[in-house]
Amino acid sequence: MTNTPLNLSYAHLSKFRLSFPFMPFLSTPANNEKGDGVTLNCSHVNLPDLSITQTEIGTPYFNMKTTNRDMKFGNLNIIYSVDELYNNYQFLYDWFFYMHNPETYVVNNTNAMVDAALYIYTNNDNPKFKFTLRNVFPIGLGGLEYNKESVDNSDLKHGASFSVDYYRLDRDTIYASS
Questions:
Q1: What is the β-pairing status of strands 114-121 and 127-141?
Q2: Facing residues of 116 across strands?
Q3: Angstrom distances, CA of residue 71 to CA of 14, 86, 161
Q4: Which of 63, 88, 138, 149 is most buried, judging by how many CB atoms fall within 10 Å of its CB?
Q5: Domain parsing of the chain, residue ranges
C-alpha cells in the first residue's frame, strides 16, 4: 500500500466573513428596505475557545480523570471597520439597547439572540464552509477612538464581544451549494 500525499492548501487567516441575519426588532437604513442581514467587514475574529471540565474519581491506587458534562464556550470577540454612515455600528448599538435600555429600564432577553455565521473562504475566495454560531448576542461594545494625528488615513476600527451558546462546523452546507 502506498501513501499518496494529499494536495491541500493551507488555510489563510484573512479569508472569512461574519454575518448576522435580518432581525425584525432592529433596522438600519442599509438593511431595512430589503430585509437583509448585516455582514461585518472584520479585520479580526476570535472564534470562541472550547473546553470540557474534568472530574477526578478516587480509586484505591490513584485518582482517575474523566470528563464532566459541562462544555464551555468562550466569547466571540471581533474587530471590524466602521462604515462611512456608521450603519454597522448603529446595528450593534441598537441591538445592545434593545436588550437593555437605560432610558426606559426595559430588559428584553426573550428574542435578542440570533444564529450568526462565520464563513470561511478558500485561497481563491470561494466559500468553503461555515461555522454556525448559536444563540449569539452582544455583551460588550468597545469605544470609538478618533485621532487627528493619524497619518495613514486608516479605517475606523471598533471592537465588540458576543456571548455564544455553542458553534458547529457546517461543511456540507457550502459544499452542496458550490
A1: antiparallel
A2: 133
A3: 29, 37, 20
A4: 88
A5: 16-177
157, three cell numbers: 476600527
pLDDT tens digits, 108-167: 666 788 999 999 888 777 888 899 999 999 999 999 988 888 777 788 899 999 999 999
Q: How far is Cα 76 from Cα 160, in angstroms, rounded to an integer? A: 8
Q: How far apart are CA 62 and CA 149, in angstroms?
A: 62
Residue 141 backbone phi and psi in degrees, to 5: -120, 125
Q: Choose among 47, 17, 16, 37: nearest CA to 87.
A: 37
Residue at 98: amino acid letter: Y
Q: Whole-prediction pTM value?
A: 0.78
**pLDDT tens-digit series, residues 49-104:** 988 888 888 888 888 888 877 888 999 999 999 999 998 898 899 888 888 777 76
Contact 139, 164 (CB under 8 A): no
Helix (H) or strand (E) holding 87, with range, is helix 87-99
CATH 3.40.1000 fits 16-177, yes or no: no
Q: What is the CA radius of gyration of the chain?
A: 21
